Amino acid sequence: MKYFCAIRPYINFAFPLVALCSALILWSFSPTPDYTTPEIIKLYTTELNEKIIAFDKAATDFEHGKITQQQLQQLLSETRISYKRVEFFLAFHYPEYCKEHLNGAPLLQIEKEGTLPKVIQPEGFQVLDELVFSNEAKEEKYEITALSKKLVSNYGLLLNGLAENKQANSYGITAMRLQLVRITSLGITGFDTPGSLNALPEAIASLEAMKVFFEQNFKQGGLNNDIIVAFNGAVAQLKNTRSFDSLDRFDLIKNHIDVLYNKLGRLDSTQPDFLKHTSGWNTQSSSIFGANFLDPYYFSVLKQDEDSPELRALGKTLFYDPALSNDSKFSCASCHNPQKAFTDGVAKSASNVQGKTVLRNAPTLLNAVYADRYFYDLRAFTLEQQAEHVIFNRNEFNTAYSAIIKKLQGTDAYATQFKKVFGKNSINRENLSKALASYVLSLQSFNSDFDKYIRGEQNNIPQHIKRGFNLFMGKANCATCHFAPTFAGLVPPLYNENESEILGVLEDPNAKSPKLDTDSGRFDNRVDTEKAWIYEKSFKTTTVRNAGLTAPYFHNGAYKTLEEVVDFYNNGGGGGLGLNVVNQTLAADPLNLTQSEKNDLIAFIKSLNDTSAAKY
User: Fold this and answer.
1) What is the DSSP code string of 130-192?
2) Do 439 and 316 contact (CB within 8 A), yes or no?
3) Measured between alpha carbons, how far is 367 from 342 in angstroms, rounded to an integer?
């Protein structure tokens, strides 16, 4: 069971009807209702309903020994193919409902029960994919039957609601572009097919269905013909690929999927109002690996019309000023040095208490804005709140806003700079937070050598970097947690929530007798609604971008080199070493990477280095 006991921070609705109604409410933002569901969508949704009902019957037959596991697998694969044909439409119009009831990750989840967390079981296609294709399928036959009946009910409810969808014929281009992001980040990486690894035929089905939808709903000629050619090229490459591991993901993305993403965007890059409120994805972007693929202001209390070069300059001055700390010895840059990719190069950062350190390793601030939760234990909910934790922490700045503001008010240079940005009487807590947020928000890193290769800005990518990317996105399973293009735990395709993972990190990876690190992580983040056993030793999935510059690694800084990190994952984490790691989310199975493959993987990771933001 590769992932079934794992946890990702997906909060379920208590009842499918509530979830569906919540999805339908999204449409109240749109001013242009269209009651017509495209004919091809009617065909796809009807076909899927028939397949789900047939699979439910097959699950019952399997439970009673009337069909083999192989026959059940075949029927599930056919049903999933039907879902993939219409996923671009359903997952766009009903994102939460699809994630929670039709095709969410096969991982334990939580929902709030008053002020406490309640652990609930996942459901849908991914759970079935893992169970039906596992060696324990016969032992899990009752669970398979129960899940298949839930699927019939959940999809039937959605299908009934679809008839009332007033925007069923709206935003078709946007929905297809979002599906291309989904295919890139969740499909061809294997995330979506944890048991079968049928990622290639499912991607083919999705692309072919979108091509038919495009042909039937948009006029031909010019750019539109180029889009059909691009669809055909992507499908052809997938059909000519022998296996999941041999897929050249770099070429597929660069020469086909990203081309489609760009061309469809040139037809229509409208961002529906509801999407602005629910997703960090920027529909105005022209490349999945573009520097503007995500909107940084979605993730910050600071909004774009409030930001300015002057505010950023003020934030930079504050960032490097030790006067912000109680003893005037520590600045933000003490632990986030731009010369070290905004880390400090030590296992755990120095404390303001002589001879002590803080609890954890200092992560890079490059791309830190692209998150909905902050710190390794996800205890902060905004970029501004992140700064507060440092200010109040007795082992770090050990001060308060009132003390900082008093110091700033007594400094002529700050009085002048704050007045220039905000006007009179402007040195206050809110403006201090805005200034720091503006500077941290500016520390963006999407112009690495790899980014330039895949965007076509640099030619002749070194083959070992290309091989490393293909491993990262395929066989090595890295991209199933470090999602493209941030290569962090920000979950695609909406990029509006962060994952945390239980890996079984060791106290000392070089010890003869390995022991688990004792840090409880998210379980002790003091967020009462997350005080659940499934978060014990769970930590935020940080970015791999600039990892070549940010050693040592993990929350405890115990891993000194990328080689040690890759070996840890290759062995299956703590569980793969034989340790008892409760609810480990990392598969304990070894990856069986060769030394050459490890070297290629590290070469790719280093190609993600980009510290150009340090010039600010």
Assistant:
1) HHHTSTTTTTTHHHHHHHHHHHHHHHHHHHHHHTT-TBTTS-HHHHHHHHHHHIIIIITTSTT
2) yes
3) 10
Q: Which residues contact 280 (CB under 8 A, 6 or more apart)?
A: 294, 295, 298, 299, 370, 490, 494, 495, 496
Confidence of residue 273 (pLDDT cuts 50, 70, 90): confident
Across 53-141, where does the E strand assignment appear? 108-113, 116-120
357, β-bridge pairs: 350
Q: Which helix (H) or strand (E) holds 214?
A: helix 199-217
The answer, yes or no, to whether the previous bond of 462 is cis (omega within 30 of 0) is no
Of 85, 68, 75, which Cα lies nearest the Cα of 51? 75
Q: How far apart are CA 20 and CA 181, in angstroms?
A: 23
Helix, strand or coil, per DSSP, at residue 119: strand
pLDDT band of 36, cuts 50, 70, 90? low
Determine the 3-state secondary structure of 273 from DSSP. Answer: helix
Nearest to 80 by CA among 197, 232, 182: 197
d(C-alpha 546, C-alpha 394), whole Å: 30
In the 8-state DSSP scheme, what is residue 390?
H
Is-contact 354 502, C-beta < 8 A? no
| Nearest Cα to Cα of residue 539 among 551, 552, 530, 529 | 530
Q: Which of 363, 309, 337 is nearest to 554 (CA)?
A: 363
Residue pair 380/368 in contact (Cβ under 8 Å)? The answer is no
pLDDT tens track for 283-299: 999 999 999 999 999 99
Beta-strand relationship, 539-540 and 7-11: unpaired
Q: Give the model confidence (pLDDT) of 439-475 as tens digits.
A: 999 999 999 999 999 999 998 999 999 999 999 999 9
If we measure between CA atoms, which residue out of 600, 293, 289, 608 comes closest to residue 474?
A: 600
**Residue 439 amino acid letter:** Y
Q: What is the C-alpha separation between 233 and 529, in angstroms, rounded?
A: 47
Output b/e per residue, 192-216; b: 16+ Cβ within 10 A: bbbbbebbbbbbbbbbbbbbebbee
CA-CA-CA-CA torsion sign (369, 448, 362, 561): positive
- Residues 143 and 4: beta-carbon distance below 8 Å: no
Number of H helices, E strands in the chain: 22, 5
Element (H, E) at 404: helix 401-409
Q: Is 39 exposed, middle or buried (0-12, 13-18, 19+ CB in 10 A)?
A: exposed
- Would you tell me how many other CB atoms lie within 10 Å of the CB of residue 416? 10
Which residue in this structure is represented by tokens 């070429």?
Answer: 251
At residue 382, the 3 state secondary structure works out as coil
Rounded to an integer, what distance in angstroms lies between the CA atom of residue 152 and that of residue 146?
A: 10
Q: Please confirm whether the linkage preceding 485 is cis (ω < 30° from 0).
A: yes
Going by C-alpha positions, the residue among 354, 16, 341, 358 that lies closest to residue 155 is 16
- 10 Å Cβ neighbour count for 578? 11
Q: Which residue type does 146 have?
A: A
Beta pairing class for 7-11 and 108-113? parallel
Closest by CA position to 447, among listed 460, 436, 458: 458
* CA 334 vs CA 9, 130, 328, 387, 490: distances in Å: 32, 46, 12, 14, 27
Return d(Cα 364, Cα 66) in angstroms, integer.
Answer: 56
pLDDT above 70 coverage of the chain, percent: 94
pLDDT value at residue 19: 42
| 94: its two tokens | 């009903």
